[in-house]
Amino acid sequence: MSVYQVVPSIRREDVEPEDVCEIYELGSRRQTPAAIKELTSRQIAIGRMLSTGTKDAAIARELGLSLRTVRAEVSALVVGLGAKSRFQAGCLLVRRFG
């Protein structure tokens, strides 16, 4: 019997962002989140969307921003949080701000 027959398929919509982040962090080598300085509400909104795997274009549409602005914010968040990926940056923000 294959493992694929035993484990039911899980859709992204069925899992809360906090749970996805928890699973991701289990495999991460990072022990504690970086210190987060003051963030704007826009950065927090972008981070929440990153934690669900939302693409830059979809974030731009949802928030009414240009694609260039979203990409700049994502880059700043990843670097500023010391994250290894955009998803990890989103997870760090979700853990901090809910």
Automatic annotation (TrEMBL):
Q: Does the keyword DNA-binding apply?
A: yes
Matching entries from PANTHER family are given as: TWO-COMPONENT RESPONSE REGULATOR
- So which domain of life are we looking at? Bacteria
SUPFAM superfamilies in the record: C-terminal effector domain of the bipartite response regulators (SSF46894)
Recorded protein name is Response regulator transcription factor
Which keywords label this protein? DNA-binding
Keyword match Nucleotide-binding: no
| Gene Ontology MF: a single term | DNA binding
Per UniProt, residues of the HTH luxR-type domain are 36-93
